[in-house]
Each structure stands twice: as C-alpha cells, then as structure tokens.
Write a structure and sequence with these properties.
Helix 5 runs parallel beside helix 6 and helix 7 packs across helix 11. This protein has a domain of 221 residues: NAD(P)-binding Rossmann-like Domain (Rossmann fold). The radius of gyration is 19 Å and the shape is globular. By secondary structure, the protein is an alpha/beta fold. It has a 4-stranded parallel beta sheet with strand order 3-4-6-11, with helices on both faces. A 4-stranded mixed beta sheet has the order 5-14-9-12. Strand 1, helix 2 and strand 2 form a beta-alpha-beta unit.
C-alpha cells in the first residue's frame, strides 16, 4: 500500500492487519505520521520509507504485492493545494509523477490488482458552483477538474483506463474526516474547526468564507470499508465509484455542531477573504450501493464526537 502512514492509509493498514493480511505500507513520512501508527498500534516492521517520485524506489516497493492500494498523494486544504500558482503546479506535478511511477511499477511487476484513490476534484468545477449539487459518475462528460490536484487525479484515472492486464478499482473520494488527520497547513475543514474550538479562547474561532458552502462528509472508517469492498470487486475495465455521502451540510452547521460538542460559549467570526473552494458538492452513491453494497454507516454527529475527543487527546499530548 502506498501512503500507508497517512490519514486514510494508516486506518486501512490497521483494517488489513486485523483481517489477517500481510501488509507492506509505503510512505515518505514527510508529515510526522509516526503518531498515527503508534495510536493504531501498527508495527513499524511493515513500513517502508520511500519517495514514490523516484521511479526505481516505486518499482522496488510494489514488486511482491498481489494488490496495491494506491493512496499516496500530495493532499491538503484549499489554500495548500490552490492558494498560489506554485501550489497548483506542485499539486499537479508531484501527484502526476507519483501516479506515473506507481502505475508503471505495477505493470512492470505484473501486479494483479490496484485500488486507486481518486477524488471528487475530477468533476467539472463549474458544476460545483451551483447550489445542492449531487455529483454522479456520469457527470464526467467533459474535463474541467479542480486545479492541478484535480487534473492529476483525472490523468491517473485515464492511465488506469488504458490498462488491460490488471483488475482495477477507482474510488472517487469525497470529504473524509476522522481521527489521524494532521494539524498543519494541509488540514481540512473539520479538523481545522475542531482544533480552533479546542484552543478557544486562546485562538479565535474563525470559519473561512460565509459558511454557506456545502459539503458531504464521510467518516474515515466508512471510507476504508468502501476501499476494502472495492478491492473485492475490482475488474477490467475499471470499476469507478463515488465514495462519499448524498447528504450535504453547510460549513456553518458543521461549526455549530463542533461548538455544541465543545460545550463552549464561542463567538464565531466568518472570514470572507479566504479561499473556500466550490459552492456545493455531494455524492450520488446509487452506483456504489448497487455494485458494492456500501453506504456510510457513521452519522455525522457520531463521527464529529469521535474526532473531537481524539483531537483533544492529540493536542494535549503536543503541548
């Protein structure tokens, strides 16, 4: 597995180990992911440090695998991925290079099966500027992805579509949250707001934008469950499914829920000068229900509570 020490990857490693699988987890360890591995009690002897932007290293680490879960990518917040011209170029070039090397390595080593984590970012960005958008796999009728990151994921899907000798599953992952996401410049909205709530009043509770933008959110364990099921159903031509929720929630509602969990009397400030990404995105999950028998099982309220409690423990350990 690539990206095995990352946010989603570390949970997938734990799931695979608990299922009795032999796991080789590959990661560059660039963001201090050892804490996640420690929290999940993942043995370090299944971890290989490698830079997948290097073709030789990529070929070496996948050579003995039956299935490759390819999660490694440069990911992060809207500001981190799209906040400058250089950010856009790095998101495109680094992710494209990682995918080129890993996919080529899988071919050269005759890997039987690959599960690729793509993204909601492949869908046309103009569609997502409308209210109450429900994105279907059939909505990719023309190419207008979200910036360099979206283009890289789209090109990753296209490369896999040309392959005829492997079974392939493609998961277009929507907004995943839960225990284990780093508290740094890459942090997405739920852990970012959770951290602000925990630190309040030492830090302001600031919501980027007006708070009216909507997203569907999927708890990390539900995402891992979908990836495991996708491995079983991987085929050729590739099976491509949305991994998300068909229930969208305004960001200001997320903020209110986190405030309720914190039991703090907070003043919320909205910063409309910040990048907030598309207006609306949620997943049409009819296909993944039909093909994998999967749908999210963790309610947003329950997932937020678990995430908040984890974040309290993690931030306490860092101070």
């Amino acid at each position: 597995m690539t990206g095995g020490a990352g946010f989603i990857g570390s949970h997938l490693v734990r799931w695979l180990l608990d299922s009795g699988r032999d796991v080789i987890a590959v990661d560059d360890m660039s963001r201090g992911s050892l804490q996640n591995l420690n929290d999940l009690k993942i043995p370090l002897n299944c971890l290989i440090k490698a830079d997948l932007r290097d073709r030789v290293q990529a070929s070496h680490v996948v050579r003995d695998a039956d299935t490759v879960f390819h999660l490694a990518a440069k990911v992060g917040s809207v500001e981190y991925l799209h906040g400058s011209e250089m950010a856009e170029l790095e998101a495109l070039q680094d992710n494209l290079l990682i995918d080129v090397n890993v996919i080529r390595a899988c071919l050269e080593n005759r890997i039987k099966r690959i599960v690729y984590t793509s993204s909601v970012a492949v869908y046309p960005i103009k569609i997502q500027q409308k209210p109450d958008v429900l994105l279907s796999e059939d909505d990719l009728q023309y190419y207008d992805p979200e910036g360099g990151y979206g283009w890289a994921k789209l090109l990753g899907e296209m490369q896999l579509g040309w392959i005829k000798t492997m079974d392939i599953g493609v998961a277009r992952v929507f907004n995943v949250y839960g225990e284990g996401e780093p508290f740094d410049e890459t942090t997405h909205v739920i852990p970012a707001l959770t951290q602000k709530a925990i630190m309040y009043p030492k830090e302001d509770f600031v919501v980027w934008g007006s708070g009216d933008q909507t997203r569907c959110f999927i708890y990390v364990y539900d995402c891992v469950d979908a990836l495991m099921r996708l491995e079983e159903k991987a085929c050729n031509p590739p099976m491509t499914v949305n991994v998300g929720s068909d229930k969208s929630t305004p960001i200001k509602t997320i903020a209110e829920k986190i405030i309720d969990i914190s039991k703090k009397n907070m003043h919320v400030r909205f910063d409309r000068s910040k990048l907030v990404g598309p207006l609306s995105r949620a997943a049409d999950i009819r296909k993944v229900k039909a093909m994998l028998g999967w749908e999210p099982s963790t309610s947003l309220d329950e997932g937020l509570k678990r995430t908040y409690l984890w974040a309290e423990r993690r931030l306490r350990s860092l101070t």
